[in-house]
């Protein structure tokens, strides 16, 4: 099965998972359900990246029909939450490479609600 091209090329530290063996290896290493997301990847709804700093983090981008690609989740091993400092490092790294991850999904929806787009 051929994965679609990633929505963004990533950085030296934030690497797209572009095929099933990478997804399976990451799911095994992180003890998470990433393999169950393959249909979402193939359908263009989600794409996953591996943040290689420290103990590693999985970043899920979600394709929102209003906002485009936004951060859906950032999780550590066993789906544990990630410290805010690490989230800020990821966003900073992404924006320095030209990709703007200004808002995660909840923040973006709150802003749209505030401006009455819903």
Count of alpha/pi helices:
4
Helix- and strand-based class? alpha+beta
Count of individual domains: 1
Number of strands: 4
Radius of gyration computed on alpha carbons:
14 Å
Helix/strand order: EHHEEEHH
Trace the largest sheet across and list its strands: 1-2-3-4
Main sheet makeup = 4 strands, antiparallel
Outline: globular
Helix percent band: 25-40%
Give the assembly state of these chains. single chain
Low-confidence segments = 113-118
The span between the termini is 37 Å
Average pLDDT, all residues: 83
What percent of residues are in strands?
A: 15-25%
Overview of the molecule:
The protein starts with 13 loop residues before the first strand and ends with a helix. The protein has one domain (14-114). With 118 residues, the chain is of the alpha+beta class. The chain is globular and about 35 Å long. It is 33% helix and 21% strand. It has a four-stranded antiparallel sheet with strand order 1-2-3-4. Residues 113-118 have low confidence and may be disordered. A hairpin with a 5-residue loop joins strand 2 (46-51) and strand 3.
Give the arrangement of secondary structure elements.
Elements: E1 14-16, H1 20-30, H2 38-42, E2 46-51, E3 57-64, E4 68-75, H3 84-96, H4 105-114
Antiparallel strand pairs: 1-2, 2-3, 3-4
Task: Give a nutshell description of this structure.
With 118 residues, the chain is of the alpha+beta class.
Short descriptors:
4 strands, four-stranded antiparallel sheet, globular, 21% strand, alpha+beta, disordered C terminus, 118 residues
